[in-house]
């Protein structure tokens, strides 16, 4: 196994950081890694906003319900799905914006953005740093967009904390491959038979070092999907210019 694959299998989200800012050199390396990923049709439909202003970071941290680690981390980036550049090009040529407004274009931008963030995450972990994605910024997506001055055809998808880990959680066991990987056809019963995994996750939550819980993967999912989350996100996307069609 390569060192990289071994590192990836030791990934954990870090939520307790040293309050040490990252050097300009390290940040440059992280950004370069994020920019190196594949990009659908090479549209590079993402932007990265580093939040260095303390008041701004504090407000975003509060929105995210992740105040302690967003404020404390080495640095904090917001990853933005971004078709504003394309909108500007199309407008300059007097062309229709329909091509960047539909659901497919939004998917393209969201996938490009996520690839960039994960490349940064893997790069950060290769340097011994820790990361945590912060989807909590979407708790008030319109306010985050306003705070960052985001224009139309952009969406703040998630934040990423990157810093020196103070403590780390245990690795969370992933789905058994039999529940997630198949050949040629989707095996419905096999993928939905989660008895073994539920036992494994229940053991993990009951015995982990901190924040022990009585829960398994099914109970977590039932809770998470008990009602639609952040229903206002659809309206925000429309306000940003996307048709969702
Ligand atoms: C898009 C995305 C958004 C996330 N948002 C948050 C968040 O707002 N706060 C948080 O503490 N963790 C967040 N996480 C981290 C997940 O909770 C974490 O990845 C998951 O529980 C698996 O744990 P692990 O990363 O330690 O293996 C997010 C992860 C992803 C991929």
> What is the CA-CA span between the terminal residues?
44 Å
Report the CATH architecture of the largest domain: 3-Layer(aba) Sandwich
Write the CATH homologous superfamily of the largest domain. NADH Oxidase
Low-confidence stretches: none
Class by SSE composition: alpha+beta
Identify the overall geometry: globular
User: What is the tally of beta strands?
Assistant: 4
Number of helices: 12
Rg calculated over all Cα atoms: 20 Å
Order of helices and strands: HHEHHEHHHEHEHHHH
Q: Report the sheet with the most strands, covering strand number, pairing sense and barrel closure.
A: 4 strands, antiparallel
Structural features, described:
Residues 12-163 form the Nitroreductase domain. This is FMN reductase (NADPH). Keywords: Flavoprotein, FMN, NADP, Oxidoreductase. This protein has 245 residues and is of the alpha+beta class. It contains 12 helices and 4 strands, in the order ααβααβαααβαβαααα. The chain has helices at residues 3-9, 24-34, 54-63, 67-72, 84-92, 98-101, 103-126, 141-147, 188-192, 195-207, 217-224, 233-239; strands spanning 46-50, 75-82, 130-134, 154-163. The mean pLDDT is 97. The structure holds flavin mononucleotide. Flavin mononucleotide (FMN) binds at residues 11-13, 15, 64, 66, 132-136, 158, 169, 172.
What topology does this entry show?
Layout: H1 3-9, H2 24-34, E1 46-50, H3 54-63, H4 67-72, E2 75-82, H5 84-92, H6 98-101, H7 103-126, E3 130-134, H8 141-147, E4 154-163, H9 188-192, H10 195-207, H11 217-224, H12 233-239
Antiparallel strand pairs: 1-2, 2-4, 3-4
Helix pairs in contact: 2-7
The structure holds flavin mononucleotide.
Residues 11-13, 15, 64, 66, 132-136, 158, 169, 172 line the site of flavin mononucleotide (FMN).
